[in-house]
Structures are given as structure tokens and as C-alpha cells.
User: Fold this.
Amino acid sequence: MSNLPIVHTEEDNIIEAARENAGFGPILTYVKGEYFLEKKMVDLGTQFKVYTKAWVQVWINFGPPVQQFIYQIAKGQKPPEREKLGDLDKTKWATGLNNDPKDPWVKQFLLPFEFVDTGDRVTFRTSSGGGKRTVADLCSLCAFRSKRGDPSIPIIKLASTTFSGRQGVGKVQKPQFDIVGWDEDDGVYRAIDPEIIDGDGRAAAQVPIDDEIPFAPEWR
Assistant:
């Protein structure tokens, strides 16, 4: 048996934090042109229903201790600007890529997906600029369709595309959700239910979706 230490990637840390601290369930991610459910590859072209009204944004700091603040966009909860979170002294940040200081706070977008063929629920998670743009564009489109009274639950298939990065970077890959159909909104709010942790660190009951999330503070 090997005695070598287990090395966790940033993606592993995100998945672990999401599981243990927010109850997000299986996490679907996009890495370099491919999609992964946990660490198992999901084929391009796989189809999902996407429940964009349950879009949440998360500020997360892996600490220790882990801190995270969750905001339900459809409920009007607005994430604060990065400067409101503190931890601004770059001399205290860990070293990241290219030996540059790495911001301890990461902003994530999360969105409930449902496999068309099985009905299983997963959560798509992204923290990249391209990924967040893809999520925001889809959510905006669905909101405009809903306001018009049109079917607003998209059925998408997973795809991948590129865009031009900053000078010297070249093409950057990002997720793409090709819409192949629409379902009527049945009025059910399929939220990503956060799990509250009580003062002793034990998992408490799930919060009803209309309740205010207790760890999404008002930032002044």
C-alpha cells in the first residue's frame, strides 16, 4: 500500500466543499472541453433539462475554515462585490499559478440540471469567466421567454466552444449549451437546497425554498 499523500486538486476541493457544506448533490463540471460528473466523463451531446429559475451564485473561501455565502438570483439576492468580503492583503494569499498570489475567494455559478433520459438531478458548477457567461446568457434568455409567456424550461445538449482570450493567451475553451427544445414551466421551483449547519457542526433540516438563506448576509 502506498504511503504517498493524496493530492487534492482545486476541482476536488470545490466538489468536496459543495457536498459537505451545501448539499448540492452530484456536481457537473467543465474542464478543457470536456464535462465530468464527479470524475466520470459525460459525453458531449448528453441532454438535460435546465431549471434556470433556481440559478444561484456562491462566494466560497476554502479556508480553513471553509466559508461560503449563497445567493438565489430569482429571489433578488445579490452577491456583494469582492472587496466586501475582506482578505484583501495579497501578501497573506497562497501562491497560485505563475507564482502569483491566489485570491482565497472564488465566485461560482450553480444551476440545477436534470438528465432527460433518467430524470436524475445534478448541479452544473462553474467558476470560469466563459462558463459564467454561458450560464448567465441561458438564464437571461429563459427569463425573457417566461415574461412573454413562452415555454421557458430549456432542453439542452452539452457542447463546447472557444473564444478569443486576452492577448498572448489565444483561444480559450468554454462550455456551450445547445438548445434542442423547450418545456412549459410547471411552476415547481426546483431549487438547489442548501443544508444549514447548526452551531455544533451537525446537519440541520433543509430550508424551505421560500425561506431566506441564513448564510447570504446583507453587505454594507
Summary: DSSP finds two helices and 14 strands in the chain. Residues 129-148 form the longest helix (20 residues).
